[in-house]
Structure formats: C-alpha cells, structure tokens
Design a protein that fits this description.
two-stranded antiparallel sheet; 8 helices; 4 strands; about 5% strand
Length: about 160
C-alpha cells in the first residue's frame, strides 16, 4: 500500500504496472514532452521583433506571417499573437507578452507544467501518480485553455479589448 498526497491508500495492480510499461503509455507521454520542449526551444531560438515591427526572426531571417485564418479573412484567429507572446515571455519581456496576446503567459505556464508532469510519468510512472495526483486535471486543463482562448477572441473581435 502506498499513501498518496491526499492521504488515500491505494494498491498498484499487476494490470496497472503492465499498462504503465506499455508502448502507448510511454509514447503518448513522450510525444507531449517532446512537443512542449520543442516549443520552448523554438521560443528561445526566435528573437523578438524590432520596435514597430511584427515579424519574428531566427538570426537574420524573418519568419513569415503564417496565420491561414488571418490570410483568408483579414481577422485575427484565437491564437493570433500567441507565438510572439510566448517568445516575449521566454525572453522575460512580460509587458510585451501581454500586449501580443493576453494568454501567452498562461499557455507557457501550462506547457511548463505539462513538461514536468510528463517527465515524471515517464521516469517514475507508478510513484508519480501518487506524488502528483492531479495529472488528469492538468490534462483536462486544455479544454479550459481552449475556452479562454475563444472568450478572449470574442472580446478582441467585438472590439471590447484592443
């Protein structure tokens, strides 16, 4: 028996141990960890735009504006400005981050928590579940994050927030 953080006792079954050591379990956690780490790495590699300009740069090369929704409609999508916001937050420009997108810092924090959670699940899956029992809620947090992005977008499109 193992006592969890919440004080609940549980027993790890052979079935649970078999699932934790299975390839799908490892693969799903590894994919999320790699994607989040790649986003962090890219954010560090990309330089902030110059004052008065919006294009991000990798070294001397500017990155193109790649929002298909914006290119087709002329209106920003729910994620427009999110890349610049994350890049600014990684480079400790928090005021600029909030100006580019209000939720950039929240998305960055969510990704950092996902990286910690996934690394724990990969390195010590049976113990991690007891150490961090809120992993399922963290995984469900993507739904809340998507709702926040949509609410923010509605306010931006309606002109209530600039």
């Amino acid at each position: 028996m193992i006592k969890t953080v919440a004080g609940i006792y549980s027993i790890s079954t052979d079935r649970e141990r078999a699932y934790v050591s299975s390839r799908p379990y490892l693969a799903s956690n590894l994919v999320v960890l790699i994607v989040c780490a790649a986003i962090f790495g890219a954010a560090f590699a990309i330089s902030l735009p110059e004052t008065g300009k919006t294009a991000l740069h990798i070294g001397p090369f500017p990155l193109p504006h790649t929002c298909t929704f914006y290119n087709l409609t002329g209106h920003p999508c729910p994620g427009c400005g999110l890349t610049r916001s994350i890049v600014a937050a990684v480079h400790k420009e928090f005021q600029s981050s909030l100006e580019y997108h209000r939720l950039g810092i929240v998305v960055l924090l969510y990704m950092a928590l996902q990286m910690i959670h996934r690394a724990g699940r990969i390195l010590s899956p049976l113990k991690w579940r007891h150490f961090f029992p809120y992993g399922k809620r963290l995984d469900q947090g993507i739904i809340l994050l998507a709702c926040l992005l949509l609410v923010n977008w509605v306010f931006v499109i309606s002109g209530l927030w600039n």
